[in-house]
Design brief:
The structure is a homodimer of 370-residue chains. The first copy, chain A, has two domains: 136 residues, Gyrase A, domain 2, CATH 3.30.1360; 128 residues, 2-Layer Sandwich (Gyrase A, domain 2), CATH 3.30.1360.120. The first copy, chain A, has nine helices and 22 strands. In chain A, the strands form five sheets. In chain A, strands 13-14-15-12-4-16 form a six-stranded mixed sheet, sandwiched between helices. A six-stranded antiparallel β-barrel of chain A has the order 17-20-19-18-21-22. In chain A, strands 6-9-10-5-11 form a five-stranded antiparallel sheet. In chain A, a hairpin with a 2-residue loop joins strand 2 and strand 3. At the A-B interface, strand 1, strand 2 and helix 4 of A face strand 1, strand 2 and helix 4 of B. Strand 2 of chain A pairs parallel with strand 1 of chain B, so a sheet runs across the interface.
């Protein structure tokens, strides 16, 4: 393992001092900001997410805000999904594509009002993309990165904790719906969301000077639920089949090759950027690759290091890329995620991956694992 | 210090195995790729750069390539500098601005031919920006990130080493000029450039599968010059006043506030993105802030940690941001870099910064320090 050199180029989060005080040991850089990845005990962090409640500093989920009379028009142009019926207070998981249909990002798009939207983004400078499209089209919309930093509260006990803090009405919030509120005057957007399948909420802090105050309030109220610090959990997200944009997919992937079929309206009216390219993909029979799970025949009880994508082969020929390998605590076996040629997936073929002890076989399965 | 969690989202460089073998201890993430920052002895790395020759894996300087009949038109539109007389084989340090004149990046633009250009970039996903502008304007140009990874050879002995490997003619290469060549069949662009003021070259490797081979050849040939591994050197670059885009400047800065006055042609014909905004800045009297050096009255012999930009004040009022503090080995004093209000710079005022022992005074000076 290497030490990371900090510098002003890499932004601290509003919760930074609290995460350090909580014992943060490992980080990564995401959207040029610090993302805590562990507090020193990955198994305890996993158990807390599956059985209890955890709090995660996910400030790195940066927002791009569109605000102005043309905000809706721009949001639709940037999104391969029909936004006609998107309601105020509702979010949707969407694909943003380039003009060739390649997936640039997979944010949650949140409609704050008819002329104010947030893209809650994965690791790419989408501010540049959105600003360029808006300016070149002469749209009347301000494209900015607002002072918004999400704190996720995740796990089966999250709802009780959030209801205690914000009121019983939050139990009625549907998935990806949200409400503008505050906690003792700290301005927030409270959304039922988060990068796990264990249930929970994200508190979109709207005042970066009050991060440690918010952290302390959640930690204090959560004490009776045995809340603890955590981070987006690599094992759980592989079990749940959640895409890590930029890691799981090759840069030339379209969203249909990233498990986003359900969330893309290829023939959507009105137009979106990449529509012609995605229509061409469908006209030619569908995506070339699919995002799938792999059951790996491995006697290695822990995930082997996978610093980069590695080939998936069939009879020695590359048929895909392996992007993640973990030992699933719940399934008690080694599983992975990757992109594999559709013809190979449809043939239900057994493929090979390269592990620490040489070639290992793997079977393909639909996601999620659990 | 924290450990960094590696994942496929963060790309390895073509020289990665060699840098690990050479004893790399510290890294950062830059353009979503690993940038080695130290091999465990920063002072030895500094001395090697100042007195000898060092080799740096700067693959993170990613290229955006414009190729096609409209490549020149796009390059000019993206660049706040007159490219009319840019020659094939020549590079220029340029500012790329958004429509409001804010500095998006400060690359070296290299003209490989009349219809092929590279932007050699700082830490921002400019591929998104360039692709959006090209597509929205309907330009006939392919915008891609090619398989190109620079290896820098820096220091006063670099020229002798490079001449030995490539021939005496390279001594005639002017600053930022380059030539397409190879080293024993390894395809390269050889450029007189690099992020130091100690002289040297960058070898733009054009085949990512041959990084370790290139590294070994440079290390072997450089042994007689006592070459060693290093990294862009924080102390030397502060002494030399080299801008670290994204760290030294606030996000709302225009290039005139980043020390780039000499490299910007505000009234350039033909047009570039941001021209009207920069003309407005000049019409209203010039930039509000300047990028300057600070001589810090400090008894702290080493730089204090500066994980983020901190305020520079005058009589308690913020007048700028401090972005870097180092102890200069050559000047034997503590120096810094920052942005300060032009009126304060012009008044030659003594300002205050916050150090580990409280408030310390600082005088302002033009860059570079050395």
């Amino acid at each position: 393992m290497f030490r990371i050199t900090m510098s002003p180029r890499i932004r601290m989060t509003p919760f930074h001092d609290s995460t350090v005080a909580a014992g943060m040991t490992d980080i990564t850089v995401y959207n040029k900001m610090v993302l805590p990845t562990s507090y020193g005990d990955l198994k305890a962090e996993y158990d807390r997410l599956i059985e209890g409640v955890a709090m995660w500093d996910v400030s790195v989920e940066r927002q791009v805000q569109l605000e102005g009379p043309d905000a809706h028009e721009l949001a639709q142009a940037l999104t391969a999904r029909d936004l006609t019926n998107l309601k105020e207070g509702q979010g949707k998981y969407v694909a943003m594509c380039d003009h060739d249909g390649r997936l640039l990002n997979d944010p949650v798009l949140m409609k704050l009002s008819g002329n104010r939207y947030w893209f809650s983004l994965a690791d790419n400078d989408m501010l540049l993309w959105c600003k360029a499209i808006a300016a070149e089209r002469g749209l009347e919309v301000a494209v900015t990165e607002p002072d918004v930093s999400p704190l996720a509260v995740q796990g089966p006990k999250a709802e009780d904790l959030i209801a205690e803090l914000f009121g019983e009405h939050i139990r009625d919030l549907k998935y990806f719906w949200f409400t503008e509120t505050d906690l003792d005057g700290i301005p927030l957007v409270l959304c039922r969301s988060g990068w796990s399948k264990q249930g929970g909420f994200e508190l979109f802090l709207q005042d970066g000077s009050r991060g440690d105050e918010l952290w302390a309030k959640i930690a204090d109220a959560g004490a009776k639920y045995d809340i603890g610090p955590g981070a987006p959990n690599h094992v759980e997200r592989v079990e749940s089949g959640l895409l890590s944009w930029g890691g799981d997919n090759t840069p030339d992937s379209n969203p249909l090759e990233c498990g986003m079929q359900r969330f893309v309206n290829v023939d959507c009216e009105p137009d979106y950027i990449g529509k012609a390219a995605l229509q061409q993909v469908m006209a030619s029979g569908g995506p070339e690759r699919l995002f799938v799970g792999l059951n790996i025949d491995s006697d290695v009880a822990n995930a082997w290091p996978l610093p980069g994508r590695t080939p998936i082969t069939l009879d020695g020929q590359q048929v895909g890329t392996l992007a993640a390998v973990v030992y699933s605590h719940r399934l008690e076996r080694t599983i992975g995620l990757g992109q594999v040629k559709r013809t190979v997936v449809e043939a239900d073929a057994t493929v090979e991956v390269q592990g620490p002890n040489g070639t290992q076989t793997a079977t393909i399965q639909q996601l999620p694992f659990i």
